[in-house]
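Q: What does the assembled structure look like for these inputs?
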Amino acid sequence: MSIQIIIYSVVVLLCLGLLFGLMLGVFSKVFHVKEDPKVEEIKEVLPGANCGACGYSGCTVYAEAVVQGKATCSGCIAGGQDTADKIASIMGTSTSGNISRNVAVVLCKGGKEESVKNAISKGASSCKMANQLRLYDRVCRYGCVGFGDCVEACTFDAIHIGEKGLPIVDNNLCTGCGQCVEACPRNIIKLFTYTKRVLTLCSNSDTGSMVRKACKVGCISCGICIKKCPQKAIVFKDNIPVIDIDKCDLCGICITVCPVNALSLRLALSEKDE
Amino acid sequence: MKSKTFSPGGMHIPDHKDLTKNLPIEDMKPGKDLLFPLTQHIGVPSEAIVKKNDIVKIGQVIAKAKGNFSTNIHSSVSGVVKDIKEYPHSIEGLSMAIHIENDFKDEWCEEIKQPNITTLTQKELAKIIQDSGIVGMGGAQFPTHIKLQPPSNVKVDTLVINGAECEPYLTCDHRIMLEKTDEIIDGINIVSSVIPFDRVLIGVENNKMDAVEAINQYVQKHKTTVNIQAIPLEKKYPQGAEKNLIQALTGRIVPIGKLPFEVGCIVQNVATLKAISHAVRMGTPMIDRVLTATGDCLKEPKNIRVRLGTLLSDVVGYCGGFVKEPKELVFGGPMMGINQRSQDVPVLKGTSGIIFLSELEDLNEGSCIRCGRCIENCPMGLMPYRIVELTKNKKYQETERYFSTSCIECGLCTYNCPSRIPVLNYIRTSKSEVIRLRRKS
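A:
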């Protein structure tokens, strides 16, 4: 190989490099887009998880919408009150008040030991598949199938499958964005405001005898909680007791009388979660 | 004669038919409790017309067709209606069903008498078939009267009869072809008297050469108006699939998303033709079917004629119980059949076999190694591994570009996968998701 070829190629590459560099420089000036510095500032305070709970496809899009006045300052559900205040101060306004904090609750207690099995689960890799093709091993048609679609959906690492084979929500990490709610094919994950309240941790709306065959901790719709409730705060809806949070005074009688231990106190703000 | 077949795809899998292929069909007495689910066909569920504590007799209509895309359901025993509520169902999981307690009197409904029929029009035949509750007995349970009413703008010249029975273990169609040849040919005569076919082709895989000979000899002996011919096919699964059978027998290819009408064919199962013959000649509705109860767990594998609605546990009892504890319990063939969760499920119109297997296949999913075996064996020429990839990434709608909805769910992709990926499960998931999204929009 002669030295000439090397020189030629070096020169040609140099020229090309100079030319393209020049073009980039010119075009960046000509087509410069003026970006509001506020967008960058808002992006800094947002959680950056792109969870989509605000209704926009990601944090950047939401930040742009806020600056353009299309979205309110308190739109970021994952960030909560803190983030809303920060965004408001960047925008020079103030937020109207409290954003209630939501957390996800799995309305099923039927883990590996509690639920009755009548098949061998095989060939399923997600809850969606197992639910659609009935590849789960449990009898219950309503409860958790335990393949962890919610775990996969959570961008905040707040849900994990626990020892019982049931998803456990970490209330400190959960932002209430609702991605797990969307992901659950059985619709047993629901969002609740983060206060102390009694919930029925069962979603089986079959009759008592059928629930008995399916799960040890399933609500058998016996109605004792309704009878014993001093506040008359409990009513049946689809064979599941629903507790009226306005009437309930958290006495806990319903939890102690429940024969299958389906009711439980959840989302205690001051106390540690049971 | 050289055996015909289809291409591309398909393969021969060990057939295990020796267990039952030489056993004549036995009549099984019905048990005490029978269940009649209201969904025993593709389409709209039938509507129950009996009430609790009603007395019913054999052949009495207990559920009426709701609209055209539906069929009647008849009681197969005489007895009392115990309840109408949700019961286990072999396909749906749970479904509304009529529970009838057998009184063992075996009284026939008075309304059933031998009809005096000389000539039939297409409409009349379709009416008889719908009233008799006849659906495709190969397993898909498609209402037969709809298949026999092709749109008027297409010319149908070939009746394709499915006697391929490509699924392993099953031998009930084989036994029907040997023992009830006359009824099958009679069924063909009835159907071809209303639809002018040029030819009738019966496709039989060449592991059943005795059936091919039996049919051809019968046809030679008894002159028939239409040209009937039994044709041996290569042993190759899934030859009994409608589109593949048409290709193997006639060389015509049914376009994607189209029905056999488009290429001038109507496909019927041998057992369905036998049922048509019964309904037209004797007026008996569909109250029983022949099925194969087999598998390595069963003490005495058998080909049996059972009353529809018979519980699986009664069939097990009739076959002498188990020699081994079954780990898998399949309704239908082992490739396309559906795993059952309990022995309380009833026999449906499309239950061609009940298989009890002691071995559980290992399905610890590995990674796709791109060997291409799923593509090589796919009888529809699809690319299953691409559909799996897209389904894993939740891009359900994009799977339509790879024709996921054309999948016939034969299961060869899962059967052949060296990484034990449940390919078909992924395809089924994407299919139902695509259909759900389509309905939404």
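Chain A has two domains: 37-91, 102-266.
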